[in-house]
Amino acid sequence: MPALLGCIADDLTGGTDLSGILVNNGMRTVQMIGLPEGPWPANADAVVVALKSRTIPVDDAVTESLAALRWLQAAGCLQYYFKYCSTFDSTPRGNIGPVAEALMDALGTEFTIACSAFPATRRTIYQGYLFVNGVLLNESGMQDHPLTPMKDANLVRVLQQQTRRKVGLVDYGAVSGGSVAIAERFARLRREECELAIVDAISDSDLTEIGAAAAELTLVTGGSGLAQGLPQNFRRRGLLNASAVADETSVMGGFKAVIAGSCSAATRNQVDAMRARHPAFRVDPLALAKGDDVVGAAGEWAAARVGAAPVLVYATATPEEVQSTQATLGVEKSAALVEQALAAIAEKLVALGVGQLIVAGGETSGAVLHALGVKRLTIGREIDPGVPWTTTMLEKPKRQPLALALKSGNFGSPDFFLKAWAKLAPTA
Ligand code: ADP
Prior knowledge:
Elements: E1 5-9, H1 12-24, E2 29-33, E3 46-50, H2 58-74, E4 79-83, H3 96-107, E5 112-115, E6 123-126, E7 129-132, E8 135-136, H4 155-161, E9 167-170, H5 172-175, H6 179-191, E10 196-199, H7 204-213, E11 219-222, H8 231-236, E12 255-260, H9 265-275, E13 280-282, H10 285-290, H11 294-303, E14 311-314, H12 319-329, H13 331-351, E15 354-360, H14 362-372, E16 376-384, E17 387-394, E18 400-407, H15 416-419
Parallel strand pairs: 1-3, 1-4, 2-3, 4-11, 5-10, 5-11, 9-10, 12-14, 12-15, 13-14, 15-18
Antiparallel strand pairs: 2-16, 6-7, 7-8, 16-17, 17-18
Helix pairs in contact: 2-3, 6-7, 11-13, 12-13, 13-14
C-alpha cells in the first residue's frame, strides 16, 4: 500500500492522540518519536512524527518540522497534516503560523486550513472564535498558561499575527452547507488571496464534511479532531485496507507494570484504585535528592513481585505534597529527579520481563521512551479516549517486544490501570 497520510505533531502525547484517531477511523498508523530514520514502515497507511516543537524557538520548530516533512515526502505521501493543540497553544511569534507557512513553501501549496476544533473534547469554533468547555478560549484558564497564554479567542486574529500570508474564515454558514459548500468557500477565499483559513466546526459531523472538502488539499493543519474526516477520502479511492488494528499477539506474554509520574487529579485517583488492589512502590523525591539508591531499591522490590500480578511504581502525590517538595528542591530539580528515576526503573522492569507497561504523565512518558530507546510505536486499540495501546520492538538490553500505553496525566477513568490489560488482545 502507498504512504497515504504524513503527519507532523508538535508534541508526544498529542501525536499519540492523533494516531489513535486515525486508527479508530481505519488507518494503520505508526508513531515516530522524534525525526525518523529508515524507510516508511511496512503496512502503515499513516505515520505521525512526534516532535517537541510547541514551545521551542520558532526557527528550531521550523527546521525540525521541515526535516520531518522531508522524510515524509521521501515516502511520497498523498497528503500532509500538521497537528497542534486543540487550544491553539502558541504565542504572537508562533509556532503554528511559521511552521504552517514553511510547510506550505516546501510543499509548493498556496492554500491550507487551520481547524483546531475537537467537539468530543468540547473544543468548538464558531465565527472564528474558539470555545473550550463552552467558554471563550481567553476565559478558559488558557489565558494564564505559563508558556503560551491565549488572551484572544479569535483565531483569525491570532493566526494573522503569526504569518505574512492572508488569513480568512470558513464560517459556520458554509460549514453547515456540507462538503460542497465548504469546498466552494475554499475556492472563494483563494480568489480573495487568502492562503490560510480558520474553519468553524461545532460537531463531529462538521469535521466529517470539512475532511471531505479537504480531500484535494496537499496540506491540512489542525488539532487531532480534524483527522476524523480524512480516512474516508482514502477509503473512497480504494486505498485503505479493511482491517486497521495492529496485531498485538507478540506482546501477550510479558509481565504487567504501571509507572506513574503524573500528579494530575485523574492519575491520583487511578493510583489510589491500583494501590488498593496490587503491590505498589512509592518513589520519594526527597530520598532521591539525598542520594538514596531508590532505583536499586525499586528494582529489588519489583524482582520479588513482578509476574504474579501487575505492579505499580509511582511518584504521584497530592498538590500539597508536590508544593512542599518543590519548595525544598525547586520545580525543575524535583521534576528532573523524578523523571530520571522513573525512567531508570522502567529499564529495570523491562529487564525483569515486563512486556506490558502503562506510563502515566506526558513528561514522564517522554523520559521513559528516551531511556528505553523507543523510536517508533505501532498504534493499537484504544483503552480510553486519547489513550491507545501501542507496541514497539526494543533493541536493548535485548531485542524484545513491548506493549506501551502512554497516558496523558488527566486522561482515563479511575479504573484505567485495572481495566487496560483486558484491552490488549490479539486481533480477532
Ligand atoms: P502530566 O501529564 O500529568 O502533566 P507529567 O509527567 O507531564 O504529567 O508531569 C508531571 C511532573 O511532575 C513530572 O516532571 C514529574 O517528574 C513530576 N513529579 C512527579 N511526582 C512528583 C512529586 N512527588 N513531587 C514533585 N514533582 C513530581
